[in-house]
């Protein structure tokens, strides 16, 4: 279960790759964003996109579409992609488990249960109301896992955290499925589960903004400690690290970022699991590089997946969560086969 | 050893008690005396119909499916050396789920009117489960299959299957969607004697075969290097045990739907009750699984009677707290 991280010279790569990812990744991200903005029911040329951003004119419909619908959507995709990827990197580093992803600590299923309750008992709730409910549910799910894990005899080991997380996730999701079937809201909930970026507007971006700043700052601040923690708890303690504090702060960062992402866009799978692996294969094992690079790659995957989600079955949208998995699975399988036990 | 015997007896008594209770309870409750009379052959026509045609086959299926999933989970946890492994990691639930969703999708609501498709569905699910497991094993093969690669490939393909499943499910009309959701949550719907007879031989054949291989499982759990040095032909044994796990879980899923939590939790409960030796752990897991599913089915049928709660949901709701308790109590 616990993965040995091979510390060979080949894997600890230095900065050139980081610079390349930063520069090329940023360029690709900008290109993908422009494509994403110009594609849609009304096609808009990239020049008009540029114009709408720098020289906004209220009288053009195109400019309004860009400002009010497409731009927030892309910004949302960028934010959420980076949230999920960084959360996944933190989880894998803290638990030293290659299979860890943000949702194993009860976040997703807590949010789903809160939403199921809202849909079933307060169908008139506003979108912002359900947003807050999902966020609170995510926090409560995490807290429950953490509580049970720390009440356990022998303390909170990574294995116990994983088992408690999976069990509580199963429990919460069973209750929300029960509510969904009994009150006939299964399909509403399932659309949310599949993930979607269609409903993002500036208000939601504003709600996410403080979280992105706090969560990312914690993640960057913790990056060095996480690198040490990923060598194992004994080593970390031997080097004088307060592992309990690092782990708690890490979980708080994951909860803030994944909670916000899940509340706004539903469960978008695979980014949190696969992007950290890809990043690690590219830049090595130093989390000071992994955190910013996985943020960029996560944004890129989600923006591209969102473009595909709109194109594959136009004019209907395919759930973006399914697209990220379909894009991610082949690459993940390739990595799993190549690295064998190394991933 | 004495403790083990006590635990065996306790579980058997519990199963027996729930079995008797379950016979009486349902949409139509039958008094204990009437149950006895009907079983002896001189009950009213209505009682005979309800007991022999509806309740008994369903309860027998619950026992078989519970045992099958538990044993399959026990094999997979030991082979992958991963506590979180369950039949789902071999794609059995996702493969069967995808097959069922495709089936319902292409029959577009007409399937409820077609009586015989109710019997075709378990077959579809079984084929889907086996296909998924075969794909995962093949993709994980690279001069042999290491446990970690098997788990990783399993997770990857599972995510892929689930993604395709979601795409199709969202394009269904609401009634079909509901039917699929109920199936995906685990619902015993093979409830006739013909379903029972289709599953019974598998369980009677494969579960003893697994118990006969308990010593190999003990060694495999130590990891490949130890197993090789103890003279076990690792690759061949792994394949044989995987096939057993797939057959057991595939048959279970085909009549019981995707009951996901049971295969994970029953072996853990068994291990915490009788220890990790497979000679005693596997039979205990089988009995624990059978008991949980029988009990969950009874609760699911009666709690909100006349509507039913999918049994997979009940399993998670009653299994999770008990397992968390065990998790917190044992170091």
Automatic annotation (TrEMBL), chain A:
Keywords: Cell membrane, Membrane, Transmembrane, Transmembrane helix, Transport. Its main location: membrane. The keyword Transport applies. Pfam families: FecCD (PF01032). The keyword Nucleus does not apply. The chain crosses the membrane at residues 20-53, 73-91, 103-125, 131-149, 161-183, 203-223, 251-275, 287-308, 320-337. One of its GO terms (molecular function) is transmembrane transporter activity. GO terms for biological process: siderophore-iron import into cell. GO terms for cellular component: plasma membrane. It is a multi-pass membrane protein. Signal peptide: none annotated. InterPro entries: ABC_BtuC-like (IPR037294), ABC_transptr_permease_BtuC (IPR000522). It is found in: Cell membrane. Belongs to the binding-protein-dependent transport system permease family. FecCD subfamily. This is Iron complex transport system permease protein. It comes from Natribacillus halophilus.
From TrEMBL, chain B:
Coiled coil: none annotated. It comes from Natribacillus halophilus. It is found in: Cell membrane. This is Iron complex transport system permease protein. CDD domains: TM_ABC_iron-siderophores_like. It is a multi-pass membrane protein. InterPro entries: ABC_BtuC-like (IPR037294), ABC_transptr_permease_BtuC (IPR000522). Keywords: Cell membrane, Membrane, Transmembrane, Transmembrane helix, Transport. GO terms for molecular function: transmembrane transporter activity. Belongs to the binding-protein-dependent transport system permease family. FecCD subfamily.
């Amino acid at each position: 279960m616990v993965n040995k991280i091979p510390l060979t010279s080949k894997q600890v790569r230095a900065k050139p790759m980081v610079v390349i990812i930063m520069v090329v990744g940023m360029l690709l991200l900008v290109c993908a964003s422009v494509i994403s903005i110009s594609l849609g029911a009304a096609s808009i040329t990239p020049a008009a996109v540029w114009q709408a951003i720098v020289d906004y004119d209220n009288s053009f419909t195109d400019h309004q579409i860009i400002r009010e619908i497409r731009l927030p959507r892309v910004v949302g995709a960028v934010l959420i992609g980076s949230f999920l990827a960084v959360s996944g990197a933190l989880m894998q580093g803290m638990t030293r488990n290659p299979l860890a992803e943000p949702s194993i600590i009860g976040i997703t299923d807590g949010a789903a249960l809160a939403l199921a309750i809202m849909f079933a008992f307060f169908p008139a709730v506003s979108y912002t109301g359900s947003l807050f409910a999902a966020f609170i549910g995510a926090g409560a799910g995490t807290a429950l896992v953490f509580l049970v894990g720390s009440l356990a005899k022998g303390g909170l080991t990574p294995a116990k955290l994983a088992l408690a997380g999976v069990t509580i996730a199963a429990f919460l999701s069973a209750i929300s499925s029960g509510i969904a079937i009994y009150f006939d809201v299964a399909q509403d909930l399932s659309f949310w589960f599949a993930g979607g970026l269609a409903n993002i507007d500036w208000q939601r971006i504003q709600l996410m903004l403080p979280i992105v700043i706090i969560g990312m700052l914690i993640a960057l601040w913790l990056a060095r400690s996480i690198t040490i923690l990923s060598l194992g708890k004994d080593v970390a303690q031997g080097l004088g690290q307060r592992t309990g504090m690092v782990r708690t702060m890490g979980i708080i960062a994951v909860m803030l970022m994944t909670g916000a992402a899940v509340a706004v866009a539903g469960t978008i799978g695979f980014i949190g699991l696969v992007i950290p692996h890809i990043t690690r294969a590219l830049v090595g094992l130093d989390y000071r590089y992994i955190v910013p690079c996985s943020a960029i790659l996560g944004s890129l995957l989600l923006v591209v997946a969102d473009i595909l989600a709109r194109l594959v079955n136009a004019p209907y949208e395919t759930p973006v969560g399914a697209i990220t998995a379909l894009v991610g699975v082949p690459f993940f399988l390739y990595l799993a086969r190549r690295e064998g036990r190394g991933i | 050893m004495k403790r083990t015997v006590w635990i065996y007896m306790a579980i058997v008594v519990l199963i027996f008690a729930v079995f008797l209770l379950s016979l009486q309870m349902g949409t139509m409750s039958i008094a204990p005396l009437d149950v006895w009379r009907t079983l002896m052959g001189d009950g009213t026509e209505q009682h005979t119909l309800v007991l022999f045609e509806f309740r008994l086959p369903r309860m027998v299926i619950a026992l078989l499916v519970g045992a099958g999933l538990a044993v399959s989970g026990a094999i997979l946890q030991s082979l992958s050396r991963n506590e979180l492994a369950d039949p789902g990691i071999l794609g059995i639930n996702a493969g069967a789920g995808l097959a069922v969703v495709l089936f319902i999708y292409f029959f577009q609501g007409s399937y409820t009117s077609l009586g015989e498709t109710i019997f075709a569905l378990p077959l579809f699910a079984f084929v889907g489960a086996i296909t998924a497991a075969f794909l995962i094993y093949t993709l994980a093969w690279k001069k042999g299959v290491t446990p970690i690669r098997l788990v990783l490939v399993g997770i990857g393909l599972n995510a892929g299957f689930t993604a395709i499943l979601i795409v199709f499910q969202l394009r269904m009309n609401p009634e079909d969607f509901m039917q699929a959701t109920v199936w995906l949550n685990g619902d015993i719907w093979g409830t006739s004697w013909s379903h029972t007879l289709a599953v019974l031989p598998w369980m009677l054949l494969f579960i003893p075969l697994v118990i006969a291989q308990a010593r190999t499982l003990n060694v495999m759990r130590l990891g490949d290097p130890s197993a090789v040095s103890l003279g076990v032909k690792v690759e061949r044994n792994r394949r044989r045990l995987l096939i057993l796990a797939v057959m057991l879980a595939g048959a279970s899923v085909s009549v019981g739907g995707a009951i996901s939590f049971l295969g994970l939790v029953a072996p853990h409960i068994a291990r915490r009750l009788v220890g990790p030796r497979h000679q005693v752990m596997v039979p205990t897991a089988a009995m624990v699984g059978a008991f949980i599913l029988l009990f969950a089915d009874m609760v699911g049928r009666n709690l909100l009677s006349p509507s039913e709660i999918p049994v997979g949901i009940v399993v998670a709701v009653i299994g999770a707290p008990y397992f968390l308790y065990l998790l917190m109590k044992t170091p």
